[in-house]
Amino acid sequence: MHPVGKPRGVDWASPWEEVPLAALAGRIPVELVVDAVMGDLDALEIVCLWSDEMSTTALWHQLLNAGLPVMPSAGTDVMTDFYRTMAVGAARVFARTGGAENWPAYIAALRGGRTFVSNGPFLDFRVGGLGPGEVVEPGRVSWSLDLATATEVGTVEVLVNGETVWSSEGLAAPGRRSFEGEAELPDGGWIAAMAVGGAARWPAMANYPFAHTAPVWIGSVGSYDPSARAGAAAALLEVLATARLRLVAGYGGVDIPRLEARFDEARETLESWVRP
């Protein structure tokens, strides 16, 4: 599933600035939030030819903050007879399979979030020695991040529950660089690393370099910080309200009681999360 491009008529400070979720509500697939809240969304295509990485990331972070273990995916989705599409494999999800090279191992790693998505840069992120998809305990932890890239990368960041807790300049030229530090983890939620920004140049075939790891969970998979969850639920309710209007308009007055009931159930769930 590949959701969102930036809304028309909105001028961002840079092409890789994270986007306010409310500004994207009309461009998010109608049933995406409902499916996520109801537990029917396993993965979200963060990197894709047809959508914007940071726009989709803005939505994905809120899903994670709500405690919904939606894993990141990526795909080029090219039509090779169409002149402007990128090459096959220019957008990818990389999965840690423990050395196995088969479909079941790959799918298990993808579902488990032992992954990172990228349109170029490579990331190896460890928190307390553990990688994406694994679980660390709350409190003070050390982390390490290895970045490798064939183009420059503007910034690298470590995020806890969607908030940047550390950032640094990336690389001004192709190469490798290692970073390390410490972070204070709350009782619930997630920590991840992201690389973003820089000139779009060969061999990358995107608007800007981008990579993001799947989350390392704090305490347990799908855990959440109550304050972060309440804020995420409020933001997702705004998206859901717009989606409900689009749903009704799209069916042109036809009765859709089962769909409307599903939307109502998702709304009630989100409303309960706003009041932790």
Characterization of this structure:
The protein is of the alpha+beta class. It is 26% helix and 29% strand. It has five helices and 13 strands. The strands form three sheets. Strands 3, 4, 6, 8, 9, 11, 12 and 13 form an eight-stranded mixed beta sheet that branches. A three-stranded antiparallel beta sheet has the order 5-7-10, with no helix packed on it. Helix 2 links the parallel strand 1 and strand 2. It is globular, with a radius of gyration of 19 Å. It starts with 31 loop residues before the first helix and ends with a helix. The relative contact order is 0.16. About 4% of the residues have low confidence.
Topology overview:
Elements (H helix, E strand, L loop, with lengths): L31 H6 L5 E6 L4 H13 L5 E5 L16 E4 L7 H10 L2 E4 L3 E6 L7 E2 L2 E11 L3 E8 L2 E9 L3 E11 L3 E8 L13 E4 L2 E3 L7 H25 L6 H18 L2
Parallel strand pairs: 1-2, 6-13
Antiparallel strand pairs: 3-4, 4-12, 5-7, 7-10, 8-9, 8-11, 11-12, 11-13
Helix pairs in contact: 2-4, 4-5
